[in-house]
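User: Hello! My lab partner asked me to get a predicted holo structure for this protein. The small molecule is calcium ion, SMILES included with the sequence. Please write out the structure tokens.
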Amino acid sequence: MRASVRDGLPMKRLTLTLCVLVVALAACGDDVPVVHVDGGGFPPGTDLGPLPDGAPPPRPDLGRIDGGGACVPSIEICGDRIDENCDGRETPCGDTDGDHYDACAPTDTDLTQCDCDGLRADVYPARGGLPGAPELCDGIDNDCNGRIDESAACCTGCASLGAERATRANICAVDGSCSCSTAPGGAVCAAGETCCSGGCVNTTNDVLNCGACGAACTPQADRCSASNCACGSGGPCDFITVCSGGAC
Ligand SMILES: [Ca+2]
Ligand SMILES: [Ca+2]
Ligand SMILES: [Ca+2]
Ligand SMILES: [Ca+2]
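Assistant: Hello! Below are the structure tokens for the protein in complex with calcium ion.
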């Protein structure tokens, strides 16, 4: 027993020496605070598995950091202990914010189909024919399509359209130019046309977009005239009569 105690003394001294050395090195470092990024070693989407029993709750980290020390936002992944969207918080999985979309999880392969911010009810994706949250000029990706502030309203390339900015275009192209996203070639709609989901249309005579985008005429009409659905030269038929050949 005595021999084992004596044998342990050099090791204790070595440990003490190392501790002093570590403290000294820390004290001798430069004055720039060390930023620890615990997520930095894992690519976004890595599932680190459940925490062991008794472990402290996940802490928000600073996401990925660029060369200038700034957090680089990306789509938030729930439950991975990484603050990808740089809001200072980690997002739990599920529909935490009550917007009816589950937060993007490590198992999701298409991050445009899940809630890219599970803690904000005003951020959610387009799905099932329904539009996503309106893309506001607020520095975040409101509609979870992977682009930030890409709407025409935020696009400096659309500024020259003036008051027609909201009708003749709907998106900022990757190169910063103003565009109607579904139009061939991605051009701005011509004067008098409106950028709808099907591309550029004339809402004064388009039966699928009569008067406004998505306002389709019913079988009680066979044409759109002056932005109103019509049957021939008259108004639409009554609701039980179909318009055919310009007559009810
Ligand atoms: Ca996360
Ligand atoms: Ca949300
Ligand atoms: Ca977006
Ligand atoms: Ca935005």
